[in-house]
Amino acid sequence: MSSLYSLENIVFALEIIGTIAFAISGATLGLEKGMDLMGITILGLTTGVGGGIIRDIIIGQTPPLTFRDPTYLIISVVVSVIVFTPPVRRWIFSDSMLYEWLMLIMDSVGLGVFTVLGIKSAYTVSSIHGVILFTFVGMLTGVGGGVLRDMMAGNRPYIFVKHFYASASLIGALTCIALWDRVGTVLAMGIGAGLIVLLRLLAAHYHWSLPKANIPRDN
Amino acid sequence: MSSLYSLENIVFALEIIGTIAFAISGATLGLEKGMDLMGITILGLTTGVGGGIIRDIIIGQTPPLTFRDPTYLIISVVVSVIVFTPPVRRWIFSDSMLYEWLMLIMDSVGLGVFTVLGIKSAYTVSSIHGVILFTFVGMLTGVGGGVLRDMMAGNRPYIFVKHFYASASLIGALTCIALWDRVGTVLAMGIGAGLIVLLRLLAAHYHWSLPKANIPRDN
Amino acid sequence: MSSLYSLENIVFALEIIGTIAFAISGATLGLEKGMDLMGITILGLTTGVGGGIIRDIIIGQTPPLTFRDPTYLIISVVVSVIVFTPPVRRWIFSDSMLYEWLMLIMDSVGLGVFTVLGIKSAYTVSSIHGVILFTFVGMLTGVGGGVLRDMMAGNRPYIFVKHFYASASLIGALTCIALWDRVGTVLAMGIGAGLIVLLRLLAAHYHWSLPKANIPRDN
């Protein structure tokens, strides 16, 4: 009983952390695109709750959690407004490295947290189990918010641009699933999410890249 | 009985008006992008029925209304073909102001009508009630068709470009919800939708804008 | 019994063919955009399973088939990796005509197969029947994967660019539905899908185009 309660609390805390991180990444991208307060709020909100909405629609949990519990929506809006306030935005753009690192870290935390939350939802809700399916739902939940953010802002999605993005989500998802029954749900989720953030940071620092096709054509 | 019948009729009439308005905005944008008849029809159709499909998927009403009753689909196609006919398109582009105003008015009517229709659906279908959730479903239904239209046509969504777009939807949604139990559903929807259209027109005329972040960076 | 079994087998075979064809088109577009192995795999996967996911969400079959049976996911990933291997990609880009024809043929096969599979699903699952609704679900399933592919890769969707795309899907869908009760499901699906591929190839060869609006404006 106490363990279940504890798991619920940790899942809730992860949802909050992931929502805040993704909302910051969305609002910051909106700032960088010169959007107004409402545009920034919408981009922050879309990024913060988008992955969860996609996950819930896919697994047939309608209306999605965001529409049943306004917590995530309120957090995304508040975070976006804070990012917009003059002191915060002056700070973010006071140094071009700071902007890059903020986007990297917030986007990585959102990616890591939502990947393992997607796996958790698939385990809980779906009667169909299997490594491939858990991995797929996890990755889709993890990358969904960022893909919506980038497409709405008119950028090519990070997932096609950053060399170690979906790969990090994939490795973290597989690790989380492999550990699930061995070390317990909470630890498996923590290790999975932490590994994704770590891999993204290492990839950015050491400029990891996957093999790329050299096509003898322009465009 | 008579009152219920009347409400149903008014909701149906609003769905028709919103569909026509959004289909005109989609088809007109297709014309402006130099698309052919089929492209224009698809853009008109996507805009006309897109918001309603998003709404129905979110609240778990599947298959969406558009797939159960072909009325909206047929209307969107017919409207798009009419927009494409030479006399109509010559008229639309006979004056550059006319194109701008047509897009503004049709898009505003669609936004206003679908915002209150989203609120109505959330009230009717969902067992979860709350101002924030009604507002969210209303805004998502209102802006959904236009966001799909703009993204498919390769434009940055109006919601990020027009200064008083989501703000108008938000104010109209809150007004509609506040009046819901006080003046009756029909009047609340009428006032909410009308207010959204009025705010958009005033914003366009007086060049209202929200605070914008001035970032000392290019891009 | 044997007949039903046979129908199931043919539907399964069509799902495999459509998935392979669309995955090739997505992975090849990823190559052409200079993406890395992961980006190419994601674009191949999105295109291969995207249309089916949209179809299943629309008709309320959640979780979508792709999440219940990993076959399609695995096929899309394997196909994408094969497309990425040096000999294959050298071959694809050894001649610029070859790239164009490969994209045309794979995209056409995917379009044809998924259009009739969408109709099949609508017949099987939905209790609401009607030519317009079957046609709409069929076309949405057929064009969905390609629209996702093109929007994620930052291209204007084929559906707005290729002159005889949605038109081919529409004609094939209507033919399939008209023949459904007359010649049997299997033959109706085969003729419908074959007609779509044939129309697309003829359109490409003879440069068919639909009437286009000549607007006296730039942009």
TrEMBL record, chains A, B, C:
Segments forming a coiled coil: none
Transmembrane keyword on record: yes
Keyword Transferase attributed: no
Record InterPro entries: Gly_transporter (IPR005115)
Topology relative to the membrane: Multi-pass membrane protein
Top-level division of the source organism's lineage: Bacteria
Major location category of this protein: membrane
Record localization: Cell membrane
Membrane-spanning residues: 12-31, 38-59, 71-89, 101-122, 128-148, 160-180, 186-203
Any one Gene Ontology cellular component term annotated for this protein: plasma membrane
Domain (Glycine transporter): residue spans on this chain: 13-84, 105-180
Key words of the record: Cell membrane, Membrane, Transmembrane, Transmembrane helix
Pfam families named among the record's database cross-references: Gly_transporter (PF03458)
Homology family: Belongs to the UPF0126 family.
Name recorded for this polypeptide: Glycine transporter domain-containing protein
Native source organism of the sequence: Mogibacterium diversum
